[in-house]
Amino acid sequence: MFDTHAHLNAIQFEEDLEDVIQRALDEGISHIVVVGFDQPTIKGALKLADTYDFIYAAVGWHPVDAVDMTPEDLQWIEELADHPKVVAIGEMGLDYHWDKSPKDVQKRVFRQQIQLAKKVKLPIIIHNREATQDVVDILREEGAEEVGGIMHCFSGSLEVAKECMDMNFYISFGGPVTFKNAKKPKEVAKEIPIDRLLIETDCPYLSPHPLRGKRNEPSYVKYVAEAIAELREIPLEDLVKKTTENAKRLYQISD
């Protein structure tokens, strides 16, 4: 199984990181992308990618913290794109739930990172919270289909998923697809082409049922895989095989 979006660089894992990683291996996790979204978490993601063969890094700047990003940070991210285990730029996007960063600043930082990703030819990881139309519009305006990427922890409609897939994006699902009341994610996970489907944890956040409220971790991605396999009425092994192939294709990982 391939956990396409994890934050093992978060402080919630400081005490028992090695145990968490061992449980992931024991559950059959073959690859993890650890996502950095500010200076400390980017450094943490790179350290993990350098330490473990099966861990890769994504580097970017989170929209909530867009107001903190300097031109030097953007230059640093561009330099890090040359690192052999950096496989994507992000997470980036728009988050209108929190108001730390003004919308115009978020949009500027989002556009700058898409342009950077096109320059370094890496896919992008998109964070969208309560900002769907603006996210889709900016992806289109900036020609993001040139690099494509992932709509991380997707919660939108089937129509929005189709718009994103038309722009060369994969649709990734995490813990919420296992929740009983998650009608839209379940519908999308069932209906989209399987070659555009990915799984993730977004750990330590968004633990799947039956572990809601607990700290999430990569080994729990199996609950996401099981839920989607059941929705699509296919064997779990087929779902795992396809989503792993999809993630390796997107991230250009050959092993």
UniProtKB/TrEMBL annotation:
Query: SUPFAM superfamilies attached here?
Result: Metallo-dependent hydrolases
Q: Does the keyword Metal-binding apply?
A: yes
Positions that bind a divalent metal cation 1: 5, 7, 91, 202
Record keywords, A-Z: Hydrolase, Metal-binding
What InterPro entries does this protein map onto?
Answer: DNase_TatD-rel_CS (IPR018228), Metal_Hydrolase (IPR032466), TatD-like (IPR001130), TatD/YcfH-like (IPR015991)
Q: Where does a divalent metal cation 2 bind?
A: 127, 152
Q: Which GO terms describe its cellular component?
A: cytosol
Entry's Pfam families? TatD_DNase
Does the entry feature the keyword Hydrolase, yes or no?
Answer: yes
Q: Which GO terms describe its molecular function?
A: DNA nuclease activity; hydrolase activity, acting on ester bonds; metal ion binding
Supply the PANTHER family for this chain.
D-AMINOACYL-TRNA DEACYLASE (PTHR46124:SF2)
Q: What is this protein called?
A: Hydrolase TatD
Q: Which organism is it from?
A: Fictibacillus enclensis
The taxonomy runs:
Bacteria, Bacillati, Bacillota, Bacilli, Bacillales
